[in-house]
Amino acid sequence: MKQKAWNNIKLGVFVLAGLLLLIAGLYLIGKDTNLFSRNYILRAQFSNVEGLVVGNNVRYSGIQVGTVKEVKFLSDTLIEVRMVVEEDMQSIIRKDDIASVGTDGLMGNKIINIAPGRTGAPLAVENDLLRTEEGNSTEAMLAKLALTNNNLLEISNELKKTVQNINTSRNLWRLLNDESLPASVLESLANIRRATEKAQATVADLQTIVADVKAGKGTVGQLLRDTAMAVSLADAVKGIRQLENRADTLATQLSELVTTLDNDLATGKGPVPAALHDSLMVQKVHSILSRVDTSAARFNENMEAMKHNFLFRGYFKKQEKEKQKQAQAPQQ
Amino acid sequence: MTLNKPWADFLDELGGIARFATRFFAQVFRPRYEGAELLRQCFLIGNLSLPLVGLTSFIMGLVLTMQLRPSMVEYGVESQIPAMVAIAVVREIGPVIIALIFAGKIGSSIGAELGSMKVTEQIDAMEVSGTNPFKYLVVTRVLATTLMLPVLVLIGDSIMLFGSFIGVNIYTVTSFPLYISQAMDSLTFQEFLPAILKTFFFGFAVGIIGCYKGFHTSRGTEGVGRAANSAVVVSSVWIFILDLLAVQITDLLGYN
Amino acid sequence: MDTLPAITPAPAANSPQSLVLEASHVYKSFGSNHVLMDFNFQLYKGENVVILGKSGSGKSVFIKCVIGLLQPDKGSIVVLEQDITSLRNEALDHLRAKVGFLFQSNALYDSMTVRENLEFPMRRHWLAGQQRNSESLVQEVLENVGLAHTINMMPAELSGGMRKRIALARTLILNPEIILYDEPTTGLDPITAREIGNLMLEMGRKYNTSAVIISHDMNCIKLVADRIVLLYDGKAYANGTYEELRRSQDNIVKQFFE
Known about the structure:
heterotrimer, A: alpha/beta, 2 domains, 7-stranded mixed β-barrel, C: alpha/beta, 6-stranded mixed beta sheet, 4-stranded antiparallel beta sheet, globular
């Protein structure tokens, strides 16, 4: 009989352990769905919620504060999102705070981000409507990046064409052979060629990144998870835009120069042949060439800078390592 | 119309089990209640299965994590291991693996015990001793398996997650609270509750089939072995069938 | 069949002859196998009646009908003035407390000690009053069968003869009025079988019981039987004392005594 009572006690412990684990499990799962904490409702209205569903998380400045309770149409262009927010946040969230639909990581669930409005509005109470901002989503950013990329590619192609023109322009070479400027011209041409190559390489790299990111894999995928990172990426895109413009001018200038020279030399008319021995003309050509030179150098610099942008650093490093590996492989 | 023999046998057994289950429900709420025997069976079925379930659960969690890791690292989602393991364990692996182990240990022992009681006339002896053997033997055991398996699964799930935690810590360092919060964040009630609910049905299946096989043992000691064996086989198959039903029902109800 | 010797019930030990068990026109069949066909049987107080028959002739089926483990297809079985075929649940349990059944395989509960085995029917039958002195009752009945020292042993530790004695003790502990023995000496060596036979007689006297004994062990039958009923072809084919049947000229009866 003693044994029996003891067995019953052990059984009790066993069942109690199971019950405690059940409660713990329910609590741990439930703490994000706000079943066990007191909370209040806030609202926000969007024209597009990008796939937000009931149960998605609500974050305030990046901290989990609640979940989406309801998503419903108010009209064909307006969707209202009702959020369940922890009661503690009543002393934090203000009426002017800005809600936006974001993504939890690049491939993650949709979330509502609430950012402080900083205009000193009164605290938000139950059922208040928050201001909203249609977020610039990662997808939009990626699309922009791809566009930039294509532009870069075009420019670099143009550059290449120009260089080819220069290379094949017999007249120009004759002119250069004839005169004393060859050294600097050659140098300039080399610079331009290098710039072109670099630009092409970068474009190729960028394209791989975009493709990778779109496929959602790799380190960049992780890099882009963070919204802060995404902002930097936007900056980088802007930088690339500027670069593009500059490269554009450079290419135009060069191409103009070459065409003019070509034409003039071929026809034997115009100022160029006449002035071939004119030192003023030589000086002019010199100055143009030096301008081309600086442009190319600056383009180079820009490319270099982009490579060192922290955002892509890791990626390029990896590329380099792989290249080394490939270079080493045949040696072994 | 004639059925070929395997089908006829199969349907015969299915009908027999259904009738047996009906008899169980007819008896379970009617006095007299065998409380002391129920507690004893709960102890034998629940507590004494815990070491086996605990050990296998721990190993399962550990191995699962170690096997998953290389692929997860390759895809760069190493940080998702806890979430992935938690979903796999809580939704499917925990309930099914533990139920299968349970069927192996408890189903066979019920089948053999009742089978030997049957062939040595102990069940008849019980009946003439003024005891309803169905109540005393079957109702208590089926109730015990139905109630104890969910407890075992809850404990086993926890041990699996702990094993997985150890598995993660073989390669990197993660704190236990972080691990738990990562694991649990990915789970919802819609996943957790149906997973626990279905274990009641698994437990019921193991109990009722073990008892049915034991109660319908014939042909002496050879029959006892066969009862134990087929109790395990049939209840294991039924665990999978019920699992399939469970996932379809939760899917229909939109809880998937 | 009318060649049967005239049946004169053997005088019982107790002077007023009273019927404790009467089966009339019992039919029982399993599928197409007709086991009992118009079987009639009487048991008087204090009497030990042996039912003799071939294996599978339905002897066990009959006593299982008597205790309510099986339902006859037709006919009535009156036990202690109650028709057992019409009893259900508690009334049936109540009657069963007065009828002991010694199983062929003893049917001791493997998972319980000897003490628990003996206490089981007492606890189950809710015999108020007996609950209190169950401890002393267990002791007493164990001493009667000569196995007091086995009280805390498990059935698996006992020999065949000991198990049979414990099983007998378990039926005796409720102080039944009728005991049904299902082949009590099967599987025992002749010496042990004789011991069990003597014990049955002794206990019958001590506890003042009537007994129905199924057996085909002629030594045992010779020892314990006040009267023998020969079950043949589903009917009570012959009826008489051991000596009467042994001297019978009927071919079928002679088969059993050769």
